[in-house]
Amino acid sequence: MAAFKGWHVLLLVGTLGLLAIFYQGLWGNPNFIPPVIVETPAPEVTGPDLYKGTAVSLSDFRGKVILVNFWASWCQECKLEHKSLLAIKKHYEDDPNFAMFGINYQDKDHLAKDYLQVHGNNFDHIRDLDGRISIDFGVYGVPETFVIDQEGIIRHKQIGPIIGDVYSDMIEKVIDPLLNGTAGIVGTVSSS
Amino acid sequence: MRKSFVLILFFLIAFSGVSFAEPQDDEVLQGRIKEVSKTLRCAVCQSESVWESNATLAIQMRKIVRERLIAGESPEEIRAYFVGRYGDYILLKPRVRGLNRLLWFGPFILLSFGGFFLYKTLRRWASKPARTEPVAFSPIDDAHRRRIEEELRSYNE
Fold first, then answer.
1. Are B41 and B89 spatial neighbours (Cβ–Cβ below 8 Å)?
2. C-alpha A55: how far from chain center
3. Looking at this predicted complex, what is its ipTM?
4. Is the Cβ pair A132, B64 closer than 8 Å?
5. Which of residues 99-128 of B touch A (CB under 8 A)?
6. Distance CA B23, CA B26 (A)
7. Which CATH number fits the domain that encloses residue A85?
8. B20-90 topology per CATH
9. For chain A, is the Cβ count within 10 Å smaller at the N or the C terminus?
10. At what angle do helices A109-119 and A76-91 cross, to 10 degrees?
C-alpha cells in the first residue's frame, strides 16, 4: 500500500471540511438570514400615528427601552402574537422607562384600524406608508420585533411571532435586563 | 364613439407598461437605477434582483435607489445602505471578504487540487514499468510457411 503523502492528507482534510460545512447546512433554517442590524444604532424613523395622523419619531423616546413591532392586518402570524403584545404593554404599564410601538406594514388604514378594533389595542401605532421604515430596519416580513435600548442601539431582533417561550424570554431575558441595566453587551437574535 | 375611444385609451395605458406610480426619469437616471437595482437581491423573492421583481418590497427599494441617486449618492454608497440593513445577503454578487472568499476562490482551489491529483496519477502511471515483458516474436516455422505458399499458389492458379 502506497504511503500517505502530504497532499493526500491535505486533500482529505479539505474534502472532509467541505462535507462538514454541507452537513451542518442541512440542519439550519434555510429562511434564517443573520441580521446585521442588531448592535447598531436604530434608524431615525418618523411616521404618522395610525389614529391621530401626527408625526411620531422614535428618536423622541431616546432614554427609554423601546419595543417596535412590525405587523399587518393581512398577516396571520401577527394575529397569533397579538395577545402577547398586549400583555407585554400591560406588564410594563407603570414603567416610565418603557415605550412600545407597532409599525403598520404594507397595509390599508381602515383594515389596520378594523384589525385593532377586533383584536384589541393598548399601544400606539405608526403607519409605514411607503415601506421606508421597514427597509430602514431591514425587515423581510411580518411579524418582526426589535428592542432598542436607552442609548438608541438595537439590542434584540425577533423574527416571527412572540408566542410561548419567546414571550417569556422577551420579558425575562431581553426587556427586564435592559430596564435593570443588567443586560449583556451582545445583542441577540431569535427566530420562531 | 367617444366611449370606445376612452376604452381604447384605457387599455393602451393599462397594458403599455407605463407606470404612473413612479415619475418618469430620463434615460441616464433610469440606466443608473437599473445598474444599481440589478446588483441588489429582492429580499422576499427567489433569486430575483430588485430591478426584475415586482414585489412591493422591491418596488420600494427601487424608489430608495432612485432617491439616493438623485441626492448624489454613488452606487457603492447605496449598496452600503442596504448592506447595513440586510447584510451581504442583499447583494446578488457577494463581496470578496471573510468567508465569502471561499465562494470566490473555492472552485479554483478545488480545481487546482483535482488537476494536481490527476497530474500525479497520470505521471505515476506513465513512469511505471510494464508488468510483463513483450513476448518475443516467434516466426512461422518452415513447414507452415511452405503450406501457406502452396495454398496461395493454388488459389492464384
1. yes
2. 23
3. 0.81
4. yes
5. 109-110, 113, 116-117, 120
6. 10
7. 3.40.30.10
8. Helicase, Ruva Protein; domain 3 (1.10.8)
9. N
10. 60
